[in-house]
Amino acid sequence: MPSGGRRYDPDRRQRIIDAALRVVGERGIAGLTHRSAAAAADVPLGSTTYHFKTLDDLLVAALRQANEGFAQAVARSTALADPDADLAEALARLLGEFLAADRGRVELEYELYLAALRRPALRPVAAQWCEAVAAALTPRTDPMTARALVAAMDGIGLQVLLTDAPYDEAYAREILGRLLRPGQGGAGSFGPSGG
């Protein structure tokens, strides 16, 4: 062990982020403190404040990590990359898979995402998530329609979580399809320039 009692721990920052996600998942954002994250990560309190000066810094890191799931799934989707695939169907299926995979994880992601309403430091990260998903959709549609699709998927996801209603893939496919149809708010309905 090096002098001073400290040992090299390259994974400590990541363990703190993972612990913060567990704390928020168990107790909500109100239950997250530097102390609760340190206890959950089994690290000294000074480690959390060393890596994350403020609680908002820790929440930003947790939100960044939580956001990766759906945006990466959209970016990796072979169905979305296929120009002949039905985009509304592929997105509705992907959203259903996301909501069904781990409800607790999805609730955690939305809780962190919505925390940006009260914590301005989180807003850029929430916006980056929206932009990343929209960017992954722009090879298949125009940027405005891509943003509308993200907003619709967000709304559908929140409705499922908040009402405990089962996810209705056919409904999602229909709503997303309406955004994609020319003349009904989809690509091509904004004139010759597409916007």
UniProtKB/TrEMBL annotation:
This is TetR family transcriptional regulator. Residues 33-52 bind DNA. Pfam families: TetR_C_31 (PF17940), TetR_N (PF00440). Keywords: DNA-binding. The keyword rRNA processing does not apply. Residues 10-70 form the HTH tetR-type domain.
